[in-house]
Amino acid sequence: MLQLTEKFKGTTTVGIVCKDGVVLAADRRASLGNIIYARNVTKIHKIDEHLAIAGAGDVGDILNLVRLLRAEAKLYYSQSGKRMSVKALATLLANIMNGAKYFPYLAWFLVGGYDEKLKLYSVDMVGGITEDKYATAGSGMEFAYSILDSEYKDNLTLEEGIKLAVKAINTAIKRDVFSGDGILVVTITKEGYKELSDSELEATLKQ
Questions:
Q1: Active site residue 11
Q2: Are 161 and 21 in contact (CB under 8 A)?
Q3: Fold of 2-206
Q4: Of 5, 11, 130, 187, which one is the catalytic site residue?
Q5: Where, by residue number, is the active site (predicted)?
Q6: Is the dihedral angle over the CA atoms 200, 152, 111, 141 positive or is it negative?
Q7: What is the rounded CA–CA span in Å between residue 32 and residue 21?
Q8: Distances from the Cα of 110 to the Cα of 3, 34, 62, 76, 166, angstroms
Q9: What is the DSSP letter of 165?
């Protein structure tokens, strides 16, 4: 199982809880062994207006789970009239992953969002779930953690969180051959999900 996890965790994803939002960031490279087969892959996916996941691993497995989670979130809302909480989404995903552990989904997820509070969870390939203020997953995670461990602080602003997430991803890109080809950044706040454009990201980083 460890060998499978190492083989299929290509990419780098980062999640950070700030005082006014959650930041999710990921590189855009998709690789197949030693081959780069795509350079503009979306690795962060909106599940609901206040929920998103970032996935590292097999693209087919990630997209299959994204479709399932979106359907479950819509079903939950239609039946209860309430939006699914971040913890509920992370728990549902963990249960799905654990239930398939003998024929596993080859993916590792960061689940971020806002309900009553800003929250971030990490869900591994066999359903292990942890909540933290920051997390990273994928083949470049060791390099990203070196930045997050040294520079994260409580009560980061959203702008500071974006800069830190980008720095962590960029550090991974410099050393991890499976990460590269740009960065996608998403924020989730009280106002909902927002994907930063290249110009917005550049403007934020220049501030």
A1: yes
A2: yes
A3: Glutamine Phosphoribosylpyrophosphate, subunit 1, domain 1 (3.60.20)
A4: 11
A5: 11 (nucleophile)
A6: positive
A7: 34
A8: 21, 25, 12, 21, 16
A9: H
For 97-160, give the DSSP string. HHHTTTS---EEEEEEEESSSEEEEEE-TT--EEE-SEEEEETTHHHHHHHHHHH--TT--HHH
**What is the value of pTM for the model shown?**
0.90
| Rounded Cα gap, residues 112 and 122, in angstroms | 9
Nearest to 166 by CA among 115, 123, 203: 203
Q: What is the DSSP string of 34-69?
A: TEEEESS---EEEEETTEEEEEEE-HHHHHHHHHHH
Helix (H/G/I), strand (E/B), else coil: 191 = coil
In what helix (H) or strand (E) does residue 167 lie, and over which residues does it extend? helix 158-175
Regarding predicted confidence, which is higher, 176 or 195? 195
- What are the extents of the domains in the chain? 2-206
d(CA 156, CA 161): 6
The single-letter code of the amino acid at 65 is L
pLDDT tens string 78-137: 999 899 999 999 999 999 999 998 988 989 999 999 998 999 999 999 999 999 999 999
Count the Cβ atoms, other than its own, within 10 Å of residue 144: 28
3-class SS at 2? helix
